Amino acid sequence: MKMGCRNIQGLFVVLSMVAGWTFPASANTTATPPFELVTLGTVGGPLPNPVRGQPANLLTNGSDSFLIDCGDGAAERMAAAGAGFPSLRAIFLTHHHFDHIGGLFAVLGLRFQLDTQGPLTIYGPRGTKTIVNALLAAMGPSAEVRYGVPGERFVSPAQNIDVVELTDGSVVKLNGATITVALNSHYSFDPGSADHQKHQSLSYRFDLPTRSIVFTGDTGPSSTVEKLASGADVLVAEMIDLPNTLKKLEAFARDLPPHIKVHMAEHFEKQHLVPAEVGKMASRARVGSVIVTHLAGTRDEDALDYLSDIARNYSGPTIVSSDMQRH
User: Fold this and answer.
1) Residue 308 within any structural domain of the chain
2) Which of 14, 116, 297, 298 could bridge to 244 as Cys pair (CB 3.0-4.6 Å)?
3) Does 26 reside within a domain?
4) Which one-letter DSSP state was computed for residue 43?
5) Contacts for 258 with CB less than 8 Å, ≥ 6 apart
6) In a domain, 8, yes or no
């Protein structure tokens, strides 16, 4: 593979992954103490990964922190990042696939067990209230027993928990942060259908005092997401290695019925972003830099190839993220 000048930066990025170095997410911004993004979990599901955790991002803005998605292991990685539950003001779920919500029960449960007093709002697409209410109900027996000491006062797990369901065009304002919501193309239900109204996948733009950052969540190519990301400092984008994902599907899902395999293959092909499409989206949106996460079917040894494919369409700084990487 030939290496052009704009791919040299990709080499340094890969070296940084090996050495544990970190780089600022955008070349045209200077990191300030109140702002930080930590990619807590960076692998796309559903297969567990021994090295990478399920999707979760920790965004700190001043004294507040937000989780964007809450995949399995999010609570442990928050602890590793030095983030406590009292500063966690909100959780933003992009959609309801299990790899994006599998850690929510642990976050809610441990937060409750530690008697965290501050309010927590969980934002997400339609259906988020159903999920959160079910998780809070499942916490009931543990809440009743507490620490097993007679005479303890019962506290409802739902105390200080609020849920707000969002859709395309929703805007949330939180302590100096403005969050704008767009419907993406991770699902392909017919517009206007009952399924389209009931099940949605969202992308989020955070406009903060120091910078703007967009989380695609899971999506295929989408002009709506490109519009949402227009001019943003940072684009946090998902990425799939399609050929390798299809190979893994065949190897690890031998018992799946043929029609399910067909549906999964169609989903991977149309409702995720291959490296070239990440580059096209970043270029069309004119973003300052790209952080690639939710790595589905990828191999670390192919990182330079992914960066090269992105660079064919986008010339800005690009990082293939790793777990616990600070940006």
Assistant:
1) yes
2) 297
3) no
4) B
5) none
6) no
